[in-house]
Specification:
single chain; mainly alpha; 0% strand
Amino acid sequence: MTEKRKSTVYSSEFRESSVTLAIESGRPVSQVAKELGVNENTLHTWISKYSKPKGDAMRTTDHHFDEIKRLKKELAHVTQERDLLKKAAAYFAREAV
């Protein structure tokens, strides 16, 4: 039987701080990855992504993506609440008549 592992989603802040730690600590990437509880290959991927001089605009893209994701989730929740309140108001309006 093959066992599927649930993939962990790391915030962009965690990824960037992990890269900074791996680069500036002077320790092997494998050791830093083990200490952080991250796969070594994953940390290498983050290093190649975040250590290239792409400018601040590229680095903030992940922050914006995380913020958009959070806002979409919040919007869905608020929309659901609004729809429920509309139904409740309609129900009580009928009861009052």
